[in-house]
Amino acid sequence: MTERTSDERGTTIKSVETALDVIEVLEKREQAGVTELADALGRSKSTIYHYVNTLEQRNYLEKEGGKYRLSLRFLALGGFVREREALYRHGKDDVDRLADTTSELVRLIVEDDHQGLTVYQAAGDNVTDPHTHVGTTDSLYCTAAGKAFLAELPEQQREAYFEETALEPRTEHTITDLDELRAEIADVEETGVALDDQECYEGIRCVATPVCCNHELLGAISVSGPVDRISDDRFRTKLPNELWNVAGVVEINTTYSRWESSID
């Protein structure tokens, strides 16, 4: 009989939860043996063995030297999921061009479970060690893209997010006062551009603007770089103007593509 658990989100299947727990541990640790996985999950080694053996047989795990790691099957699945994102399909080429013109790190970010998730990024010539990668997730309240998302939310949804989110400092510059954050979100609503002045990553400034299509939020485009390259004028004027232009192009291309699909 299948073991099930239940919470406010509904009934879940315990065995599926455990399999996903194994995958998530391996995502964080890169590789691990049965004993290490059993200790991390509080399960017996014999139980964990059955899970990793099944995942290996289905080609979701690889085994080498007694340790397991995620297989490239996840890369194929991730690519399939990413291709469904309109922001990626219609924004990738423009992100590449913006990275070339700014010489900085440019990202496409979508909202996923109250986090900002990087679905694509391009590094300009000045970028030698990107502080993020595809798949990076960051909190909404302390990132430029996250503030752009919050500014697009209906007020009731935004306040619900604030109620369930602790504004914990990521750096000494993180805004942890809710009234101050509300005021900044109001500025984003008015200007259409969001700023992160070392609030998420020490020494990194980031500018972002939301991308919408027919009032639907697709995600955000951001440009980030170190403080010594992102001067105040560039931070508050030049980069926002470049982002507005790119976001406008992506919005037009997305709208046209959807219109074209509707008449086929």
The CATH topology of the largest domain corresponds to Beta-Lactamase
The share of residues in extended strands comes to 15-25%
Uncertain residue segments: none
Mean pLDDT: 91
> How many β-strand stretches?
10
What is the number of domains? 2
**Secondary structure: helix percent:** 40-55%
The best one-word shape is globular
Quick one: CATH superfamily of the largest domain?
GAF domain
CATH architecture annotation of the largest domain? 2-Layer Sandwich
Query: In the CATH hierarchy, what is the class of the largest domain?
Result: Alpha Beta
Structural Rg: 21 Å
Q: With helices defined by DSSP (H or I, 4 residues minimum), what is the helix count?
A: 9
**Element string (H = helix, E = strand):** EEHHHEEHHEEEHHHEEEH
Describe the structure.
Keywords: Coiled coil, DNA-binding, Transcription, Transcription regulation. It comes from Halopelagius longus. GO terms for molecular function: DNA binding; DNA-binding transcription factor activity. This is IclR family transcriptional regulator. There is one protein chain. This protein is globular. The model has no long low-confidence stretch (mean pLDDT 91). The strands form 3 sheets. The protein has a 6-stranded antiparallel beta sheet, sandwiched between helices. A two-stranded antiparallel sheet has the order 1-2. It starts with a strand and ends with a helix. The protein is of the alpha+beta class and 264 residues long. It contains 9 helices and 10 strands. The chain folds into 2 domains: 68 residues, Arc Repressor Mutant, subunit A; 182 residues, Beta-Lactamase, CATH 3.30.450.40.
